[in-house]
Amino acid sequence: MKKMIPTQNREKQILYILSILILFIFGFNNYMQEWKLSHPTTNKKTSSSSSTKDPPRERTKKQQYHVEVRHPPEGVGVPLVYEHIVDVVNRPTAPYPPGRDDKKKGKVRRRRRRRRLEEKEEEKKEEKEGEEEDAEVEDADADVDVDADADADADADVNKEEDTDLNDLIKPTTDIDEKEEETEEEEEEAEEEEEEDTSDNTAIPIFWHIERSGGSSITRVLGSCLSLVQASAIPSFYNHPLPTMLSVARISDQKYVTVDLTAPAGIHHAKNTGLLTTFHYLTDLIVTHMPYTIAQDLLDGEHKGRLFVLLRHPIHMALSLFNHLQHLPQHHPQFDGTLKNMQIHDWVLHHPTFPDNILLRTILGYNHDPFPRALTEVDLNTAKYILKTKVIIGLLEQKGPSMERFMNYFMWDDHSPFQNQARVDECMERALHWGWYHKSPPSDYYDHFRQEVMNEESSLFLLMKQKNMFDFELYEYAKYLFWWQGMELELD
């Protein structure tokens, strides 16, 4: 027994040393992975040396997104109501509304007009040739008694002339046929291009305005800086009946169509008064809180739309909403006196104004249910697929680049109403970065609970995340789509 004790101790020491080495290797490996993720420049260098076939832009983009996201599984589709929203990959080739003096369309119209004139001339020519043939037949019948030899000589002369005429006309006729074929092909191509351009460029931009997510600042940029006419809701027409005839009203430095697209009744009124039919070019874009209702009740096969949105982190959006509700005046329709001195914990737990996965419910049309329905993974995957295929994503935390993407995608940057581009840039800088439009004033209590909520380990943060778990995941997926669209659509 005395000799076996040192052997057992030695084995224990070896096992102890091996376990320490294994732990050290695992720890070092994890450290290196975290270090690589925190140093993207190193990843770029290694990727450039390892793969030389990919273009530098694509390599750089792939290195920028490290967060893993859950993609919707195969078989998930877009609800039928969104069939009239154009896919994001089908970019417009001209700004909306379509140019009325489009050279390509004018060229197509001229080609069609010229083609019709040529067809009429050919019909007249055929009629004249038919009349001449009839006259020749009558003359031939009248000359039946003419001498046979003279007839033979005449026939021989006619045959010679016809042969020479045919020989002379073979090449020109072939050339004419080739030119006609080329003209027809060019006309068909131009008509196809016209049809494609019409289907793409007549889809009206639709801004999905989410409350407390920076949407008011975006609409201010579009209306004040770019002078785009909006179909949303005229501020001065709140609680007043809308006119039966559509027109454009100027409120301050912005222009609005006399409709109200913030409620289902207003959307039906806009459709009945012909917002997208009789007055197809009266507005430059639609602004609404209800994209589902717009797609369902306003759009159709002839009048399509393109959806874009500015998203905000669900926690930040909820905090901004709580602060906004506490500072509302008494005459405001959303005023609630019980919120004035309410603690944020009580608001999250008990008050009906706390947002309950509002992003998911809005995009699926569940936000107007009389009784909130239980959400499922199927709803989440459907919403993800809608965002991926039908919505141009912008992020409030990237508000400057997001606005540039909107302008790039819809080609608003190429057709500025101002001759002085510096004025547009100054207007956008003031609207986007000099303070948010409609921003509620902060308070000491707001700053206090804001610091608490920003701590991801706090009970308040975890509570709000639990009550908005679908919106949390949807927002993380939207952040991935923001990166993906910048790469695939080349919007940056």
TrEMBL record:
Task: Report the protein name in the record.
Answer: Sulfotransferase domain-containing protein
* Stretches for region Disordered: 39-73, 91-203
InterPro entries on file: Golvesin-related_Golgi (IPR053259), P-loop_NTPase (IPR027417)
Per UniProt, the ranges with Low complexity bias are: 41-53
Biased composition annotated in UniProt, kind: Basic residues = 105-115
User: TM segments?
Assistant: 14-32
Q: Which UniProt keywords apply?
A: Membrane, Transmembrane, Transmembrane helix
Top-level taxon in the UniProt lineage? Eukaryota
